[in-house]
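Exercise 7. Predict the structure of DUF983 domain-containing protein from Hymenobacter bucti.
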Amino acid sequence: MAAPVSPTLALLSLRCPHCHEGRLFTHSAFNLAHFTEMPARCEVCAVPLEPEPGFYWGAMFISYGFNVATVLLIGALLYFVGGDPDVWVYVLTVAGAALALAPAALRYSRALMLYWFGGARYRFNPSRLARG
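Solution. The predicted structure, encoded as tokens:
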């Protein structure tokens, strides 16, 4: 009998916090026109993925934390590994990394917001294991 997916692995794979099977986003992160779109309900268990209007406004603070971590990490790498280059190298590298990581930061900040504050808790269902 296979063990259910852990909440951490479900979060990292951007799956529903209730069933750990349904996808949180409808399109790929590489689809820049639609990478923010989420279904209203989980496609598997029908739990609402937006618990209340404006719920994901709080995810901006989590995304801000991701961006601060990106700036600090890249700044430290450039300073210690890159030999403290000119300021324009810092600016271009950090700006490029922030833009490249923006879809991931948005998606994971929304997922964290949903897992931490969304109210949907994992419900183990043994019949799902029998399906495959």
